[in-house]
Amino acid sequence: MGDTSEPGRASAPEVVELDALRPDAAVLDELAGRLAEGLLVAFPTETVYGLGAAVDRPAALRRIFAVKGRPPTDPLIVHVAHVDALDGIVDAVPVRARDLAAAFWPGPLTMVLPRGPLVGDEVTAGGPSVGVRVPAHPVAQGLIRALGTGIAAPSANRFGRISPTTAQDVVAELGPWLAAGDAVADGGPTPLGIESTVVDLTGGRPTVLRHGGVPVEDLEEVLGDVDAPERRVVADDEASASPGALLRHYAPDTPLALVEGDRALVDELVGALGQLGLAARVLDLPADPYDAAADLYRALRAADGGAEDLLLAVAMAPAGLGRGINDRLFRAAHGRVVTDASPETVDRLVSAARAWRP
Ligand code: TXA
Ligand code: MG
Hints:
Helix 1 crosses helix 5 and helix 9 runs parallel beside helix 10. The chain is about 35% helix and about 15% strand. The longest helix is centred in the last third of the chain and has 15 residues. It folds into two domains: about 210 residues, DHBP synthase (Alpha-Beta Complex), CATH 3.90.870; about 100 residues, 3-Layer(aba) Sandwich (Rossmann fold). It is built from eleven helices and 14 strands. By secondary structure, it is α/β, with parallel strands linked by helices. Magnesium ion binds next to loops. The site of magnesium ion has 3 residues, from loops.
């Protein structure tokens, strides 16, 4: 396992192009061969790009953590081709998991279930449960089927950073940390743009650990009542529960504030900051939640590290996919939420900007 803080080499990983809808079987076989050998292959799913290792390759699984700079306490999601491929990966598939699978798989839903004997501590971070998902993307499906076993894959970004929605994002995030023989399967931009919804089915009541591609309203149609806290924040020192719930995650370098209000409030804030000599950039996301999700990480990436002192994003209506988008923006903003343009609020934003660019 390499050092987690220093890049391994300067050259770029091999990027292999694939048709997103009809990926070439010979190319998928070649990439699956790399996974079987214990190499890492990043690949597109319908949500974001994942950094994959074969579920039965412990050394490769450990390298995922090194490449991402991810704490070893953060479990990985195992991707399988079909609900019937969960034998040995989970202990059992309870009825409500079967119902969810019938409704949402393949698709952007991850279920947390008691782990099975085929899944090692490298995947579960030593815990008793495992997250499983059947992705819909033809490249992900084809790669899993060609390998013939599960692929463990977190989002293919450095830990805590903006998730990748193109192969180029993956190279920019992880290129220096990948090794010779690792590859990136380029299937173009990911269609959904935010991660799967994670639902924990190990307790009495299903609990949403992360809002995402399957809205809570849709889960409730299958499960009845679901525990779905809007802003589930865990402290940095209890991160093992589900690090996607950390306050700072999915984050750009330039400080971001989440504005709960209308465009007039945003304009007022931009004006007030401008008078103090600070440049703010507004993240203009489309009004439609599906379009906004598809654009979210691209917009954050494009806005990051520019000339601006501060980024402002307007919260979506808290329903459907909007919940997942607001959740990512809230964490990308490190919990910095703004509801007015009072002098105190503006002061708070100035402090955040000055901490970044003194
Ligand atoms: O859409 C997605 O889910 C993408 C694509 C690649 O499938 N994957 C992804 O993985 O977002 P990752 O590791 O970046 O985020 C998975 C989240 C993390 O917050 C992790 O802590 C949580 O799911 N998680 C995974 N296994 C878990 C488990 N057994 N118990 C609780 N939380 C779990
Ligand atoms: Mg992630």
